[in-house]
Specification:
Elements (H helix, E strand, L loop, with lengths): L2 H7 L4 H20 L6 E5 L5 E3 H17 L2 E6 L6 E2 L7 E9 L10 E8 L13 E7 L3 E6 L4 E6 L5 E5 L9 E4 L8 H12 L3 E2 L5 H11 L1 E5 L12 H14 L3 E3 L19 E4 L1 H11 L3
Parallel strand pairs: 3-5, 11-12, 11-13
Antiparallel strand pairs: 1-2, 3-4, 5-6, 6-7, 7-8, 8-9, 9-10, 13-15, 14-15
Helix pairs in contact: 2-3, 4-7
């Protein structure tokens, strides 16, 4: 079954379906650009990070698609300093976008991804609980797309004919023993360190590429936990609430898992700024329950 057919069969709202299809279509341009746009740009993003050439190219490709769709009212992109308001839009959607998550891995030819979240009322600064759908695209040996519209989690792969074809439907996170830990161990808090030590004593295996999308894909497939915690030198962690944490937390929850900052549900947090960072624990309920034992989440 093709992505377009699946969206229709599952009753996904027409506007969100069209936006997802647009992003899937334009992702093929991004995939092809890995060969032509792999250098370093002369600019920095809102977070002060040096942008890769493919960061800015991906942002341009997806932003143009959102503008031409006439369905998207506002876009919050990790590569833009401010929320972009599309004046000629007829639709009411707000889209959060990380055009190319993990772009520092391009130089070593490791997998990277695109992350998007969708708000039907157009306010991208709402709590994640108001998010109506989310998706990510993983550019690996095979390009795959995972989406949810709060009706399960489904994965598609890009065929040689350029179509996204259904691979897995109604995915549920299995019980597994993989953990993907971000941040320098020497900067971990004592409570987080003890939690990780407990996982290791239980036989959990470390699998960490440094890319959020490919590492979360491992957890979705094999079970376990992805975490980028609060650090002694960075109490707010590294990942962004709006662009990365909220969309992936929605996907995790729809797949039977959970997402938390170690204190509360990620999707309960009201964003205060575009650049807001958050500690993150994303994975199976068993791992999150164990985390609560050490971090004391309420």
């Amino acid at each position: 079954m093709l992505l377009q057919e699946h969206l229709k069969e599952n009753g996904v709202e027409a506007g969100m379906s069209k936006i997802m299809l647009l992003l899937s279509e334009k992702s093929r341009l991004v995939q092809k650009a890995f060969y032509t746009h792999s250098g370093v740009a002369s600019t920095k993003n809102i977070h002060g990070e040096t942008q890769m050439e493919l960061d800015t190219y991906s942002d341009m490709v997806f932003m143009k698609a959102m503008e031409k769709s006439r369905l998207v009212k506002t876009v919050a992109s990790e590569e833009q300093d401010e929320i972009v308001e599309i004046k000629k839009a007829k639709g009411s959607y707000g889209v959060t976008l990380d055009p190319l998550d993990g772009s520092s891995l391009i130089k070593t030819n490791l997998a990277v991804g695109t992350i998007a979240g969708f708000f039907n009322e157009g306010d991208v600064m709402e709590k994640g609980l108001r998010m109506d759908g989310a998706m990510y695209i993983l550019y690996g040996p095979i390009t795959s797309l995972v989406y949810t519209a709060k009706k399960g989690v489904h994965e598609f792969v890009l065929s040689p004919k350029g179509k996204f074809v259904l691979k897995r439907e109604n995915i549920q996170m299995p019980e597994g023993k993989i953990y993907c830990p971000g941040g320098l161990r020497g900067e971990w808090t004592e409570s987080h360190k003890k939690f990780i030590e407990d996982l290791e004593q239980q036989g959990y295996k470390l699998r960490f590429s440094g890319g959020f999308v490919p590492d979360f894909q491992q957890i979705l497939t094999y079970g376990g936990l992805f975490t980028y915690p609060a650090l002694n030198n960075a109490p707010q962690g590294k990942l962004r609430l709006i662009f990365e944490a909220n969309p992936m937390a929605l996907i995790a929850e729809q797949a039977g898992g959970h997402g938390t900052n170690g204190v509360q549900n990620l999707r309960d947090i009201k964003p205060e700024s575009l650049s807001q960072r958050t500690p993150l624990y994303l994975g199976g309920k068993k791992e999150i329950e164990l985390m609560r034992k050490y971090l004391g989440e309420q």
